[in-house]
Design a protein that fits this description.
single chain, 6 strands, endopeptidase fold (from Nostoc punctiforme), alpha+beta, 6-stranded antiparallel β-sheet, 2 helices
Length: 142
């Protein structure tokens, strides 16, 4: 039996699914929602049904218009559990969660071609993503 050394290992390898209601897969937004709830007890209440929105830019725009968005504070340095907003070609279209596995810092996220993966911080640009910002939930300050 394999010993899990970090909670993230239970997600690694789960396939990508554009439809987050499919419990057999995740898109990037449904992954961060589940991680925040399962690992940190933070429910991301978006106030709209994103289950059938396949355009991740539309999800991002909708999320920014919700009151939930105000619960996330931009920070200059990431710590375990922070959200990581990423872009390709300077367009914010991707999100993941910052983690530290055995002193290796990086991001757990769901990529269409590979499913849920862990990308080391120093290798992130090889995946075509650039970090735009780190966001920490207000409850981490209380």
């Amino acid at each position: 039996m394999k010993t899990i050394s970090h909670w993230a290992e239970i997600y690694i390898g789960i396939p990508y699914s554009i439809y987050p209601q499919d419990t057999n897969g995740y898109n990037c937004f449904s992954l961060i929602k589940d991680i925040q709830y399962d690992q940190y007890g933070i429910e991301i209440d978006v106030g709209f049904d994103f289950k059938y929105i396949t355009n991740l830019m539309a999800i991002a725009k909708e999320f920014k218009s919700t009151s939930e968005y105000r619960n996330w504070i931009e920070v200059s340095h990431a710590q375990e559990g922070d959200l990581v907003l990423m872009s390709t070609n300077n367009t914010p279209i991707h999100i993941g969660v910052w983690i530290d596995i055995n002193d290796t810092k990086g991001i757990i996220h769901s990529i269409e071609q590979y499913g849920v993966v862990f990308s080391k911080y120093e290798n992130l640009n090889q995946t075509g993503y650039k970090i735009l910002g780190f966001y920490r939930h207000r409850s981490h300050y209380e």
